[in-house]
């Protein structure tokens, strides 16, 4: 049980694990009953992304008109899959994309910044195909982006943090970000803090004393 950070409303969450393969009839029935019980107790069912346990538990939760988040696969239900990495550079999201990008009924929602040269950025820029596990996967899915959601600080946040330094460093390095914003941040640090700033290139080496 937890509080929603925005509304302050108490949220009950039931977490369901995953299985690497379909389960037997007895276990399936138990999982279905567990999903139904979670829903009947007013909790939201949070599942994994494998067959077997999650699939059966979701069917049980739906029988009791419960709420489900993150279910996959669920052949008879409308799916909502939450998966990482957010820029599609690796992880289980690649399996989901490989299977679902060719389907025009699929919507892919990219949340937050997509770095240059990542699959997420390619999707954001309108790529018609995506290379996944050595195959060119056609993109027929609808792709949208929610901007402004990021765990990273913006330039103002970075500057506020840099100003907390007890003394100026011998030098600073901007190593994250696209070339344009990186240059802008470096110039701002030089101007406002009067620090020496470098933007290293790939395979550059720096001796730290």
Please, could you describe this protein's structure?
With 209 residues, the chain is an alpha/beta fold. The protein has three domains: 2-69, 3-Layer(aba) Sandwich (Rossmann fold), CATH 3.40.50; 93-146, no CATH class; 155-198. The protein contains six helices and eleven strands. It has a three-stranded parallel beta sheet. A two-stranded antiparallel sheet has the order 1-2. Strand 3, helix 1 (25-40) and strand 4 (44-46) form a beta-alpha-beta unit. Helix 1 (25-40) crosses helix 2 (53-63). It is elongated, with a radius of gyration of 23 Å. It starts with a strand and ends in an 11-residue tail after the last strand. Residues 1-7 and 71-77 have low confidence and may be disordered.
Helix and strand topology:
Layout: E1 2-3, E2 10-11, E3 13-15, H1 25-40, E4 44-46, H2 53-63, E5 68-69, H3 93-100, E6 107-111, H4 119-124, E7 129-132, E8 135-138, E9 142-146, H5 155-162, E10 172-173, H6 179-193, E11 197-198
Helix pairs in contact: 1-2
């Amino acid at each position: 049980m937890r509080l929603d950070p925005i509304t302050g409303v108490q949220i009950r969450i039931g977490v369901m694990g995953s299985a690497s393969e379909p389960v037997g009839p007895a276990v399936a029935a138990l999982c279905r009953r567990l999903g139904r019980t979670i829903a009947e107790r007013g909790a939201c069912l949070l599942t994994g992304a494998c067959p077997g346990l999650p699939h059966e538990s979701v069917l049980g939760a739906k029988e009791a008109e419960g709420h489900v988040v993150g279910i996959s696969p669920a052949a008879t239900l409308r799916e909502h899959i939450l998966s990482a990495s957010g820029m599609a550079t690796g992880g289980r999201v690649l399996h989901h994309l490989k299977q679902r990008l060719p389907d025009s009924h699929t919507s892919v929602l990219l949340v937050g910044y997509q770095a240059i040269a990542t699959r997420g950025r390619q999707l954001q820029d309108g790529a018609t195909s995506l290379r996944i596990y050595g195959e060119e996967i056609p993109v027929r899915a609808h792709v949208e982006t929610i901007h402004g959601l990021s765990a990273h600080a913006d330039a103002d946040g970075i500057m506020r943090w840099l100003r907390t330094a007890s003394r100026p460093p011998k030098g600073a390095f901007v190593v994250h970000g696209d070339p344009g914003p990186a240059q802008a941040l470096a110039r701002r640090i030089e101007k406002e803090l009067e620090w020496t700033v470098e933007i290293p290139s790939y395979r550059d080496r720096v001796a730290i004393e």
